[in-house]
């Protein structure tokens, strides 16, 4: 498996919001803003946060009840429901992620694995 190289911006860019935050931030936060500008993340997974939390709870539960997983994701998504297209896509993507987790569970051989959350 070939590892990918970290993307480096030789002319870092920041948004106006980050610039405003930078002006009043502590030294540590300023350094992290500059680091994120120079070495941007490959992807931002905010869309999958509800699926990630539900999956972590599901995998750390010894019973691993699929109905509980679906209920957790539904509760998380409905709490932040909105009529925007972004939230509709997020709901769809999280539901697909949950179905993939359930579909891959047997192939992953998680029996006997002790997961802590």
What does this 3D model show about the protein?
Helices cover 61% and strands 0% of the residues. The model has no long low-confidence stretch (mean pLDDT 80).
List the defining traits of the structure above.
mainly alpha, 5 helices, 117 residues, single chain
Low-confidence stretches: none
Number of helices: 5
How much is the radius of gyration in Å?
19 Å
Helix fraction, binned, reads 55-70%
Annotation, overall tally of beta strands: 0
> How far apart lie the N and C ends?
29 Å
Biggest pleated-sheet summary: none
Please state the overall shape, judged from the principal axes of the Cα atoms: extended
Counting helices, strands and paired strands, the structural category is mainly alpha
The secondary-structure element order is: HHHHH
Mean pLDDT: 80
What percent of residues are in strands?
under 5%
Give the SSE layout:
Elements: H1 16-24, H2 27-38, H3 49-60, H4 66-79, H5 85-108
Concise account of the structure shown:
By secondary structure, this protein is mainly α. The chain has helices spanning 16-24, 27-38, 49-60, 66-79, 85-108. It is extended and about 50 Å long.
